[in-house]
């Protein structure tokens, strides 16, 4: 996959950090739960990281197909 390119590696990191943001968002949206300020702080840090990885992905595009390759790779079952 594109993991062997700078853009591909950044895209993989972006995927990881956006997954973390999603999990925190899901935890914070439970009805009746008190907002966890530590989790909110982590989410802000992850958002900053996501921006950095997005910029790295765009700035290091080589083929323009890195995202397409990533989606294909992620959708295949890996033993």
Characterization of the model:
The protein is mostly helical and 79 residues long. The chain has one domain. Helix content is 71%, strand content 0%. It contains three helices and no strands. α1 packs antiparallel against α2. The longest helix is centred in the first third of the chain and has 23 residues, at 6-28.
Number of domains: 1
Judging from the principal axes of the Cα atoms, what is the shape? elongated
Mean pLDDT: 86
Q: Helix and strand string, N-terminal first?
A: HHH
Fraction of residues in H or I helices: over 70%
Give the amount of beta strand, in percent.
under 5%
Radius of gyration: 15 Å
Helix count equals 3
Count every beta strand, where a strand is a DSSP E run of 2 or more residues: 0
Largest sheet: number of strands, sense, barrel closure = none
Contiguous runs where pLDDT drops below 50 for at least 5 residues: none
Structural class: mainly alpha
Determine the N-to-C terminus distance: 16 Å
Provide a compact summary of the structure.
Helices cover 71% and strands 0% of the residues. It has 79 residues and is an all-alpha fold.
Please outline the helices and strands.
Layout: H1 6-28, H2 37-59, H3 66-75
Helix pairs in contact: 1-2
Features:
71% helix
């Amino acid at each position: 996959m594109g993991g062997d390119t700078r853009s591909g590696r950044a895209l993989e990191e972006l995927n990881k950090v956006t997954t973390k943001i999603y999990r925190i968002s899901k935890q914070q949206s439970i009805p009746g739960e008190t907002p966890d300020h530590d989790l909110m702080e982590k989410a802000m840090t992850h958002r900053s990281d996501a921006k950095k990885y997005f910029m790295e992905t765009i700035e290091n595009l080589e083929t323009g197909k890195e995202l397409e390759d990533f989606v294909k790779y992620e959708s295949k079952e890996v033993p």
